[in-house]
Amino acid sequence: MKLPLLDTDQIHCYAQDGGRIACDGTGQDASSGKRVARSAGDRFRVLEDVVEDMLTGAVWTRDANPAEFPMTWHEARRFVARMCAQRRHGYDNWQLPSRRLLFSLISHQRCNPAVVEGHVFARIFNGYYWTGQPCFRLPDQAWYIHLGGGRIHRGMRHGSYLVWPVSIQAGGASDSRPSAPHRFTPEDGCVHDSRTGLTWLGEADLTGCKLTWTAALRAVGDLNVIAKGGFRNWRLPNIRELESLVDTGSHSPALAADHPFSSVRDAYWSSTTSVYEPRYAWTLYSRDGIVGVGFKAHEEFYAWPVRKG
Predict the structure, then answer these.
(1) Under 8 Å CB-to-CB from 295, ≥6 apart: which residues?
(2) What is the CATH number of domain 40-168?
(3) What is the pLDDT of residue 182?
(4) Mean pLDDT on 91-120
(5) How far is residue 43 from each of residues 2, 30, 119, 171, 259, measured CA to CA in Å?
(6) Which of 3, 10, 134, 176 could cross-link 98 (Cys pair, CB 3.0–4.6 Å)?
(7) pLDDT beyond 90 at 215
(8) How far from 66 is each of 31, 49, 149, CA to CA, in Å?
(9) Is 224:258 a contact under the CB 8 Å cutoff?
(10) Domain ranges across the chain
């Protein structure tokens, strides 16, 4: 099964200078309607030394650092292979997680560690963790996620990062490449994504220029005044929605090879503030699919509107 598109857990809104503000009318992540999140107590089921994630079906080691020390990417792959051979904790299909699966554990309201509130894991380090996916454009590199803040980046395979094994059960989520035939349907200047249920503006650059974060939020809000495409619920996407477009089997841009979007730019603002440093907001770099941050006051990123339904 494919990983569900999870809402972020961000519940506060922030000014460009990082101060907390009321959410009404801001167009920020926390101001948009969210599906009712499953509490951590309902989401995670402890089974002795492993934890089942009821949202994704993935089974994680409860110890988030079973290897004890950082490893190169190849050492990490050998480590999980030994776990399979030994049927560690009763499972024989241990692997390094896909980037999207590890990203599903990330919180956007907490940091150090940036893991969802109420989790039941032990020994989570505020550092870098390998995923099992190489970078398509730079095959001597692989993807990792920083569990202190939530950034997704790529590093040389000979670099040393931590290992958190996962076991994918029959019917569980295995989402390393999200593209699928007929995923995107263009219509009237918009593109509907059947995988997530989101509708994106077909032209992936609303204004034709780089904007500050506040200007990007305002520009997308202005679409609702003119009812672009006949709709008034356009908004700047949250960081999970932006990341859902990434296809790690493509690059320049890291979108499905048959995507129908025009004017795809190199970097986009999300509506999600980085609580690690609230003067920054989460961003997507489309060349490879890096998830990073941008300084809100700088005109460095583009706006790509989205709506649900």
Answers:
(1) 279, 280
(2) 3.10.100
(3) 82
(4) 96
(5) 17, 21, 9, 17, 33
(6) 176
(7) yes
(8) 39, 11, 21
(9) no
(10) 40-168, 177-308
Rounded average pLDDT over 46-59: 95
Is residue 96 within 8 Å of residue 163, measured between CB atoms?
yes
Strands 190-193 and 141-146: unpaired
DSSP-derived 3-state class of residue 263? coil
pLDDT of residue 178: 47
The number of residues making up the chain comes to: 309
- The pTM of the full predicted model, rounded to 2 decimals, is 0.92
Torsions phi, psi for 229 (to 5 deg): 70, 10
Tokens of 87: 């049927």
Among the listed residues 213, 304, 307, 235, the one whose alpha carbon sits nearest the alpha carbon of residue 263? 304
Instruction: Say which residue the tokens 């077909």 belong to.
Output: 202
- Residue pair 267/253 in contact (Cβ under 8 Å)? The answer is no
Task: Name the helix (H) or strand (E) containing 294.
Answer: strand 290-295
Give the whole-angstrom CA distance, residue 184 versus residue 206: 19
Same fold, 40-168 and 177-308: yes
CB 268 within 8 A of CB 242: yes
| Fold adopted by 177-308 | Mannose-Binding Protein A; Chain A (3.10.100)
Q: Which residue's structure tokens are 């730019």?
A: 265
